[in-house]
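cache lookup: miss for this entity combination. No prior model stored, computing from scratch. Input as submitted by user K.M.:
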Amino acid sequence: MRQCEDWGTDSITEAPFWVYTDPDVFDREMARIFCGRSWSYVGLEAELPDRGDYLVTRIGNRSVIVTRDQDGEIRGFLNRCAHRGVKLCRHARGNSRMFVCPYHQWSYDARGRLKGVPFIKGVKQLGGMPEDFRREDYDLPELAIARRGGVIFASFAPDMPALEDYLGDTNTAYFDRVFDGRGLRVLGYSRQLIPGNWKLMFENIKDPYHASLLHVFLVTFGLFRADQKSQVRMDESGGHALLISQRGEQKASEDTKDMRNLRVDFTLEDARLLDPVKEFPDDATVVMQTVWPNLIVQQQSNTLALRQIQPRHPGAFELHWTFFGFDDDDEAMTTRRLRQANLMSAAGLVSADDSEVIKLAQDGIAEGDGRSLMLMGGRGTGDETHMVTEVALRAFYKHYRAVMEL
Ligand SMILES: [Fe+2]
């Protein structure tokens, strides 16, 4: 097993390539990060409107069921029969009072409590479970649940801090900026398998430096550009971060000479693709929030989405997108959100670039010995007021090394 000293330096300005490829590191991440002391995003209350509604998702590489029980409470538990380890529920969502294993029909209630074992007393006084078998010893591990603004988080740790303490003041305030108590309306889903390590996705969203360079669409149409008014803000741990920026104009300046992908001569055939309207009280037009360990909250113009990271193995993760609006949106706003969603997800005018470079990064990293460099903007981990920085990546690795003891 890798040790702290294997990192090669105390620094957080470099990450050895093996953190993206080593199966032992991946196993430790699943145990310490995803099954450890963290709040993982698992779904929206709007997805479970009625009693008995459930959804199946993943925390790290563990399949979990999240359900609204008969009292209306949200519950969560491991999706794995205590008998022989069979996946209890094979549907992505549905409605059910009980969860019955397809193999031997052991049945569980909405809290994962074992309620039924067929032939527990045998047949004709033959067979059955031993006298000392107690059903309550085989309940499924129940997850702690936290809810805020209609968003559901779950944890395998029973003694987690409240979500607002976990996020810290700044990240809670920006979370509440989007999830302000209005009812949420799911507009659609998208999912993709990206052939790269899951941390590369977080690094991508925490990295404003690349946005001005890689994304033709963002820089050309002024949606996210290094010469705009911006902030990068972290919580105390470093695990969560916010990139906050304000849209500028489509024109060249002294600051854009390094942006090779800026095309001032490009125009949209259909300008409706970008017709943002102001909907939040502040002047930010884009806020990208990363919540340790598996959530990205995206507000780019009027396209809103949650992206959930589901690691599969060191070299791949699934990215699950949930696009949403609010119950009080009019039809024009819903159409606008959906139109702007063309920037995002697997084939998105912006996001396709990110999936591609994550794959290219993993390809290079997988060649072997080397280190990833995160020196842009200095060596600090404190908040910044510009985009030419990798500070949120350094903050992430500060927290990562502490949790992983690496
Ligand atoms: Fe990007």
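stored under new cache key. Residues 168-404 form a domain with the Naphthalene 1,2-dioxygenase Alpha Subunit; Chain A, domain 1 fold (CATH 3.90.380.10).
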